Structures are given as structure tokens and as C-alpha cells.
Amino acid sequence: MxxxxxxxxxxxxxGRAAFVAYLTIGYPSLDASEQAIDRLIGESAAxxxxxxxxxxxxxxxxAVIRSAxxxxxxxxVTMRDVLALAARVRxxxxxxxxxxxxxxNLILSMGAERFAEEAEKAGVDxxxxxxLPLEERDExxxxxxxxGITMVPLIAPNTPLPRVVESVKGVEDGFLYIITxxxxxxxxxxxxxxxxxxxxxxxxxxxxxxxxxFGIASREQGTALVKxxxxxxxxxxxxxxxxxxxxxxxxxxxx
Length: 255
Fold this sequence. Notes:
With 255 residues, the protein is α/β, with parallel strands linked by helices.
């Protein structure tokens, strides 16, 4: 059983949804990212950390994460920097699952095999490649698997259920990231009323944990949304925004 499976087993035993925290690594700085991860795990009890790799054309992301990626790139943050940070986090937090959240081009640019080798050394548990379709996933998964790394499928709101089921095959030891809204990332005042039914249908069709993400502004909103409908929720833009506003200097938790 890997760290991701243990994480969901633990949260289920505690009768709660897992909290997945996303950060754009390198924003507002690499040091701030590392400090934020420590606080998210320690103060906010984050169960899983998504390490967002800054990319020049993050088409799936809204204004907050786009701006953060731009600022991180201006500082020269690369995939290797992200993996080096992951290694430091792993040394401090040996049980917390780490997911590299990236666009596939960045992995290809580094070289898939080299990426997999360095990700394994860093203690990475899974990769979410935003723009890698199901039909092409095996070219990366086949490289990751010998290094003990799984993948997290990203499921769009309009994905047919049979395709969702197909997406789980071969990555049952990870989780499904279910996009809650049409469009890009970013905090929403409210989420679609049909979302819970959509989550219920997916949860009934697969045994792999499902996690809802995009648009969730707070832990309270996430917990209320997924209660009885999903195994976890993701908060990203709200955390990134708070970091940009000096959240590390505040006495209150980041989320």
C-alpha cells in the first residue's frame, strides 16, 4: 500500500474528507513555497500536497495561478527546482503524499526517464499531467511505474462515465481528480447544483478515491461539498492568492 492509499484509508477511518492543497512552486519564492507546505501540513492538516510546476502557458488555470506561474518563471524556477523542494519536504514529512502537477511538455523537455528517476529520488508519489489525454497516457505511465510512481487522471465535467472507468485502469493506487466546474481554476462563490449527482455517479462506478477540485474557496466549502459524495477536495487558488498577499506573515492559517 502506497502513501496515497494509506492517506485515504486514514481519512476514511476518521470519517472525514482528505484535504489536498495545491501550490504554484516558486511563488512568491521557493523558500516561501517550502515554508507554506510546512504550515499547510502542520497547521492546516493538509493530507496531500500538489506541487504545481510553473509553466508559460497554463491554459487550464485562471488568473491567480497564471500570475503566480509567471512570477515563478521570472525567478527561473524549473522542474528540477520543484523536485529538489519535493526531496526536502519528503525528508521533513515522510508520510505526506506528494503529487507533481505539471503540463506534459515540461516532463518531455526534461526527458521522461530522467524525470522519473529524479522524482523517485525526491519521494514523489504521483504525477498529474494536465494536458496528457488517456489515449497517450501509457507513454508516461510505463516510464513512471518502474520507479514506483502512479498517475492522477484529471476528469472533466463532461467526461462520459465509461471513459471515467477506463481512466482508472492501471492507476487504481492513486486518485481521480474530478473537475467541479467548466472553465479554468479559480475561486467560485458557488458550485453547480448538479455536481453532487455527478460525483455520486463516478463514486458508484469506481473503487479508486475521487477528489473534487477547481473553484473551492475554503475548507468549510470543500467539506460541505464532498460530504457523502467524494473522498476529498482540492484548494489551490485561494492558497496561492493568500501567499501572494503575504499570508506567510499572518498569524492565521493559510487556509
